[in-house]
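Case study.
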Amino acid sequence: MSASAGSSRLKRMTKRTEFWIFLVLIVMCIFIQARSGGQLFTANTIVTILRSMCVDGMFAMICLIVMVSGGFDLSFPAVAALAYSLATTICLNNGWCQTNPIAGFVLSIIIGAVLGMLNGWIISNFKLNTMIVTLGTQTFFTGLSMGLLKMKEITSTLPAGLASFGKWALFTVKVDMNGRELSYDMTGMFIPFVIFCIVTSFVLNKTMFGRALYAIGGNETSAERAGYNVKRIKFILYTVVGAASGFVGMVRVCMARQSIPKAMIGKEMTIIPAVILGGASIFGGEGTVFGTVCAVAIITVVSNSMLLIGIDSYWQDFFNGLIILVGVTVSAVQAMRRNK
Amino acid sequence: MKEFVNKNRYMTMLLGLLAVILVLFTITKGSLLWTGGTWKGIVMQFPEYGVITLGIMFCFVSGHIDMSFVALGDFASIIAVRYMAAHTPENGTNGQIMGVILVGLLIAVLIGALGGVINGVLIAYLNIPPVMATIAMQLVWLGLSTALTQGYAVNGVPALYTEIGHSNVFGFIPFPLLVFIIVFIICAFLLKFTTYGEKLYMLGSNIKAAKFSGINTKAMLIGTFVFADVVATIGCMLMVSSNNSAKADYGTSYVMQVILILVLAGVLPDGGLGKITNVVLAIVTVQIISSCINMFKDLNIYYANMIWGGLLIVVLILGTKLNGEGLIRKKKKA
Amino acid sequence: MSEYLLEMKGICKSFAGVRALDHVNFKVRPGKVMCLAGENGCGKSTLVKIISGVYTRDEGEVIFEGQPVTKITPAEATRMGIQVIYQDLSIFPNLTVMENLAINSEITAGVKFVNRKRWEETAKEALSKIGYNIDLYAKMGELSVADKQLVAICRALLFNAKLIIMDEPTTALTKKEVDALFTTVRQLRDSGIAIMFISHKTEEIFEISDDVCIMRNGKNVYSGLTSELTPDQFTYYMTGRELTNDRFEPKNISREPVLKVDQLTLPGNYENVTFSLRKGEILGITGLLGSGRTELALSLFGLNNPKSGTITLNGSQVKITSPMKAQKLKIGYVPEDRLTEGLCLQQPIADNITLASLKRLSNALGILKHQDILDDAQIWKEKFSIATDDVRKFASTLSGGNQQKIVLSKWLSNDLDVLILNGPTVGVDVGAKQDIHALVHELANEGLAVIIISDDLSEVVTNCNRVIVMKEGRIVGEMDGDQVTEDNILEIIR
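After joint prediction, the assembly is written out as follows.
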């Protein structure tokens, strides 16, 4: 009994996208490690890669939960941008956040939530293509931020509390480079990233709200018949997603030590494909945190280690595109086989 | 009158919108708005993305979406400009240079067609959801362009090319506008008067039924993507003449703008819907909005974004009524 | 305690002034199978939605377990023990069997967090109700329709169901699966649960039900014991007309066959299929779901390429590799599922009718002749009496029967040698059904070779001069002329 259950569990596991994505990640890492003469698995490279994963990884979590519910959110970068620009500007003007970043984060989260509510209201009240709706709100929020509110770049004047929070290091790796000692900080922002993953995973797997998202993504009519208040769930989802975008945006501001309203434009075009590569379906109802993290890791590792294996970093977008193309092709062909 | 409104709800809405905008700006900036310069600017600017929009409309009518067209067009124009820059003779005659330009254009069109074929094959034969296939291709083309140019603009556009782009045909039609008009005539003809257009609308509203009616849906899709992407590439070649160079990220904002215009015109990516005259009306409306906003010194171009985004949302919500009850969720009474 | 579990008296319901239900009365006894029968559009589903609380009745009385019920909400219906198993089964294909089973009761209980252990218990309890065994961790979407249905039944039983309403549960099942389902239904019945079984298939109704309630045009025209009803009476009540015997008499059969199929095989679909078809004939191909009838039809239309065997058309051997090729070879196909395969609903009627004959309605350059298209559509509108005032209106504005007429016109306006009709009158009202049959007879007598694929035996018997019966991918019987009777077919089919 247990042996056969074990083997069937193994069989189920090999059917899952995240299993293969994980394998690809491992194989790729080994390949890069070999080609680069062992430069990938060095403390400084890993610290750098983990650092660049933080913000994208958190955005990916946001994207993931929307996709699980069968939605498609193009507006989260615009929400984040508007939220952090406005929040830092308010902090700057009022002299807040001189010692700690709390006010900035709270403001950013609140603004994000409000913007998210607008998405949520439209999407839950009208049966519309979520991609087009969020395209509209994305354009609107960007216009609002840089047009009406005239958000400016805040660089050297960034409140000290935010800047120092961004410098928070868990530990520092020191490397001897031709006699010069270089130090690499392991960013403290990795903590919110890990928390994000845990919370997303918890919500998706351990709460009825998360299961509702899978149910709605799988079959919205059935979800309604089963007794879910689909409208309310969608409203809450987009509000939470807005708040989370505000938070992640602020993390980015802290890490970059500058608030640039334009910095987020086009971000959705790299995050969404990564989430899909990780096994989420654009038709909803599929996707896991583990798969998404693996996919983000693949893309980050590729971007960060191109130079290590002697490829010009200008090829980064091309390889990202290629990986995603292969990923979506494989899953489409698999789906075709299953239907036959 | 009432019948016209009922039959052309989107057109009525767009005309109403246009009227409101014109009245509003006539009151606030009438002296600036009604000048030759302003209108010349308007007709010079919209053909660029107008041409692209007309092409991508075909994808939307077929029930598919394309996100790759600007990246593809940029790549094509980079290659074309590189070719033109390398082969333009220093002191060549206009005829010689014209030859080089034509070859350059041909190269661009062929690359556009190649991109269309790839999109079509990915979607029709490999069954990849169009959004995904074309986002991935967008990254691929952008990546290729970036890798080739290291992110720099490619210069060396023959002077003649820019000259033509800024010329007035017959002394009063700006060249880009002429291109737009020609493309419009071809598109309108294809959609309204040919079996291809007829089949395209039917395929867009139910691809399976089209297949069961003996239509070669795969060939149709590939053909549609080729046409759309070639037309979009032509739009990008117009961009080359106004920028006097090609670059990996020229016109990236056009992706969203094109989708926005199409939805504004009632051409939804769900397929089978929309009239080309409405699309032209929407293109002009969008351009007038941004030109008008440009007249205010204290307003930057992002105001236009705000208005467009807001409009899109309002149109979508209104659209649930404009397209009949099919789109709106029936109120459930518990 | 009343003798009846549920009594409904004088139920009326109107939508936008149109009366969908007109003083409907019926009763459900506990521990019995009650069949709600009627043609499409007779108000069956409206009635079900009133019972399950989705719609509110305009007038009438509902008595459940002897107690009058004033207002039913979906939650109230569940609490009272009424469970509906919809035709689409309301399942979540992306979730496991276990979650599908547990989700409803978890929601009803207002639980906030997941407790997989409790889910598993719930799921096991549900399965044990009918002694059904299945991998709890299997993905729902990967199960067969029959398994999905059993899971849906188990889920319904979790709510201490007293009345289970099953909406057309046998539509997508094979005969074997139907038998298994009926065994389960009887088992439930014997445990005291009332089953309301919605169907329009005569044989099934007589096989399974104790009571029957027949509806027509929003009224119930018969309710009582099934045993007091003969199949002929049943059909009369269903359709409102005496069973006429205007059987198709071929008048004009060619000597040479137009289509010959020899040893056609596609493993897993059908094997060694051999038959021939002459002009002027209407050949029926019948068999249960999964017998290979649809797969065979698709092969003849180029959508399901056979592995071996030959197809000969007008004396020359052909390979039909795509619908385009089939069309060139003058073969037309009216698909099974009108809405997904046959129509572009959001397009004008005229464009739908002329979709397959655009070549004829355009010039050599592919330029459309708009007037010809409208004229052509107009001709078909009149010939088929399609109920519309303007062929430029959307196809979605028509009723099912009229929509089917469009799909037929689409092929008939082509010059055809062979026309394949797959389920030509599924979901079509009686009037339109007669129109369609009459036109097919006329066309056959004009020299068209027709194949009707159907599991509606009365349709096959009245319309076909020759019938092939398929079972598990093989031809198991062929009969023609007077041999074609429902009994003869039934004998082979089982």
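Observations recorded in class. Chain B has one domain: 2-324. Chain B is about 75% helix and 0% strand. We will return to this complex in the next lecture.
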